[in-house]
Design brief:
The chain is an alpha/beta fold. It has 20 helices and 13 strands. This is Alpha/beta hydrolase. Keywords: Hydrolase, Signal. Belongs to the peptidase S33 family.
Length: 537
């Protein structure tokens, strides 16, 4: 999941990260959600927490800290401090309860997301006024993320060096495999140098779900309502499986196939690469279909023009002059241009911006594309985001990753064959987990069925650059009771971005009603690649 910096995020929908009915043609009472057998699961017991002590930390915001066991099998052992934030319901007379959300990543701080809600209208995961009126919205930074003892593994210099490099050494811009292995060693050695192996091993999603239940208890709630986006759709089913009778309602947006997340990390990464390649191809196809009067890039052959541009920039990077408040200057090479394009192609709202930047780079002005690359890879500018470190630590605690290099070589070849442009990003990207120094010996591996919880609303985009649509279908089958709502179009996350989806999600969260399984929401606006001047942002 890639995030734009705030200025771009607010304007263009922040669907790059990193990564949502009056219903028109998509609402009906529908049949009862399908249900499968399976009893409720139990979890490790934990001591009852003290009530949260709140302090004002912003407009309509309160903050608190909750200590939870590092390992729930050792409740009196080491503790982790969780950062918790609350946005109080605006209509207290009709308050339903607490809504806990996870905005994804893994590695995205939920408290930062909640703090930015007033600026986030029209972006994935932005709650409607109806939801904000009826719920206390609760943000919990998962352990190892944000204010909850964020994981650190690299120095600023190491992050800056790594930001613009493709993973696959067989393509332009990639590093030789020995260097990739050395980078993985430096990364994992840095992780254990800056925090204990025991802490790193505790960052698994099952512990995140247990932490949420501690927050629920500290809030004094018997049940919670839950909304999860992207990785948040792993946390939600885990919670519903471990604590099914503590779920009031649940919505999972841009869902991950939890069976693949826990079971086959290399196949998981291949799916992500293919999904991202499909959104780039959708931009190519739309550009070509709209014609040169609308999309002049490539003069009717955008794919060939793009490949030539990447090769040209890789052979001779463009010098970028410093611009106060915009960019410190540097070089734009092919790997950086590919990464910026991958991110911008993943949201059809940013396609006009992508067209403008590619046209400028083709004419010798790489500053727009370089600035966009900085926006999707750097925070705070110009240091690449540390979210990647927390992201890696969480997935390594969850994943089963082969340790032998042969499996990674085979997966890299498969990724590039399946997604010849974007596959370079996925190739070898699990090497850190292959040599992870803090194995999680008690991870939850059973299917996350949520048996005993209320029916779940699963929302998926037809062309999602991060979580492909078939993952949503797989999740709906895995869950004991669920319905699937599909949004047409390109983008990661649907709630907050589409009026049809917004109405369906609000109905599910507030009233517990869901559309018919298999319902479809059309896009609110037709995708276009018509250039948009960067000065207009």
């Amino acid at each position: 999941m890639i995030q734009l910096r705030p200025k771009l995020a607010v304007r263009y929908g922040a669907a790059l990260t990193a990564a949502l009915m009056v219903l028109t043609g998509c609402w009906s009472g529908g049949p009862e959600p399908r249900s499968k057998s399976g009893g409720a699961d139990t979890s490790a017991s934990a001591p009852s927490p003290d009530p949260l002590t709140w302090r004002t930390c912003g407009k309509n915001l309160e903050c608190a800290t909750l200590k939870v066991p590092q390992e729930y099998t050792e409740p009196d052992g080491a503790q982790i401090s969780l950062a918790v934030m609350r946005h109080r319901a605006t209509d207290l007379d009709h308050r339903i309860g607490s809504l806990i959300f996870n905005p994804g990543g893994p590695g995205v701080p939920a408290t930062e997301t909640l703090r930015n809600l007033p600026k986030a209208a029209g972006t994935p995961g932005a709650f409607s006024p109806a939801v904000l009126a009826r719920f206390d919205v609760i943000a919990v930074d998962p352990r190892g993320v944000g204010g909850s003892q964020s994981v650190r593994c690299l120095t600023d210099e190491q992050r800056a060096e790594a930001a613009g490099t493709a993973f696959n050494p067989a393509v332009p811009g990639g590093k030789p495999l020995p260097r990739l292995l050395a980078d993985a060693a430096a990364f994992t050695d840095g992780c254990v140098k800056q925090q204990s192996k025991e802490f790193l091993a505790s960052l698994s999603t099952d512990n995140v779900a247990r932490d949420i239940d501690q927050v629920r208890a500290a809030l004094g709630e018997g049940k919670i309502t839950y909304y999860g986006l992207s990785y948040g759709t792993v946390v939600g089913p885990m919670y519903a499986t471990l604590f099914p009778h503590r779920v009031r309602q649940m919505v999972l947006d841009a869902p991950i196939d939890t069976n693949k997340w826990f079971g086959d990390s290399l196949a998981f990464l291949n799916d992500v690469a293919v999904a991202s390649e499909r959104t780039l191809n959708a931009w190519f196809e739309t550009c070509r279909a709209e014609g040169t009067a609308v999309c002049p890039f490539g003069a009717g052959k955008p794919q060939a023009a793009f490949d030539t541009l990447i090769d040209t920039l890789e052979a001779k990077p463009q010098k970028i002059a410093p611009s106060k408040g915009v960019t410190p200057g540097g070089e734009l090479d092919g790997a950086m241009a590919l990464e910026a394009t991958r991110a911008l192609a993943g949201d059809q709202k940013t396609w006009p911006l992508l067209t403008s930047a590619l046209l400028a780079a083709q004419d010798g002005n790489g500053t727009p594309l370089y600035t966009l690359w900085s926006s999707v890879t750097v925070s705070p500018f110009p240091v690449p985001t540390t979210m990647f470190e927390a992201h890696t630590a969480v997935r390594c605690a969850d994943w089963q990753t082969p340790t032998g290099i042969a499996a990674h070589k085979a997966a890299a070849a498969k990724a590039v064959a399946a997604a010849r442009r974007i596959g370079t990003r996925a190739a070898y990207s699990a090497l850190n987990c292959a040599r992870w120094p803090a194995p999680n010996m008690d991870r939850v591996t059973k299917p996350l069925t949520g048996a005993g919880a209320p029916p779940v609303l699963v929302v998926a985009g037809r062309l999602d650059p991060v979580t492909p649509h078939h993952w949503a279908a797989n999740m709906t089958r895995t869950l004991d009771s669920a319905v699937l709502l599909t949004r047409e179009g390109v983008g990661h996350g649907s709630y907050g971005t589409n009026s049809c989806v917004n109405s369906a999600v609000d109905a599910a969260l507030v009233h517990g009603t869901r559309p018919a399984d298999g319902a479809v929401c059309k896009t609110d606006a037709t995708a276009t690649t018509r250039p948009l001047a960067l000065a207009d942002r």
